[in-house]
Amino acid sequence: DKYDEQKGTELWQKGLDELDAESVKITILCTEDFSSQMQSVIQRWQKLLGTQIIAEVAIETEEEIETNVKKDTFQIAICDLTAESANSLDVLKEFSSDNGGNISNFSDKNYDKIVDKIISECGGKDIISKSKSAEQFLVDNAVFLPVCAKNSYYLLGKGVSGIYALPALESVCFINGGTD
To answer: Is the dihedral of CA 97, 84, 57, 148 positive or negative?
Structure first.
């Protein structure tokens, strides 16, 4: 869906009214890699919202951002969420309430039930459709959004096949590789 600036501005004003505020001051935590992008975002916000938003970028290391996110001592954080597995179900399990590696501290019993049901009941194509519903649940209910994706691999070879990348594991597999 295309972003509707007018609707966004109306919702912003509604939020300010609910807070009984004339403006909001925010700090965005990000690494050096994202700082120029965030400055551009802030300029766009200020163009649309004027002095109703006062925003600044605080550049931190990934470790500092992760610590602030875990301690819940941040307003907005732009950070990498790197999957520990190429398996979509393993990635979804990372956001379960009882997962000690859940950087987001997201906790929702309904989400946990969805993931548990996928684990116990699904196979094959069902896993894909049910995983999509769990992913949508995260987008709809968690206080984080996917902003951009980073890819590290480009595989191309004339007359070569069977080579594939495992981005989550940051590796390339040549086991089935060969020439056509």
So the answer is: negative
* Cα 57 from Cα 36, distance rounded (Å): 9
Which has more pLDDT, 37 or 20? 20
Residue 105: C-alpha distances to residues 2, 99, 118 (Å): 30, 9, 21
- Does the pTM surpass 0.70? The reply is no
Partner residues linked to 55 by β-bridges: 26
- The average pLDDT across 40-67 equals 89
**By three-state DSSP, how is residue 41 classified?**
helix
DSSP labels for 105-173? ----HHHHHHHHHHHHH--THHHHHHHHHHHHHHHHHSS--------------TTEES-EEEGGGTEEE
pLDDT of residue 150: 57
Rounded Cα distance between 2 and 151, Å, is: 24
Structure confidence by residue, pLDDT tens digits, 138-174: 888 876 666 665 554 445 556 666 666 655 555 566 6
At position 140, the amino acid (one-letter code) is D
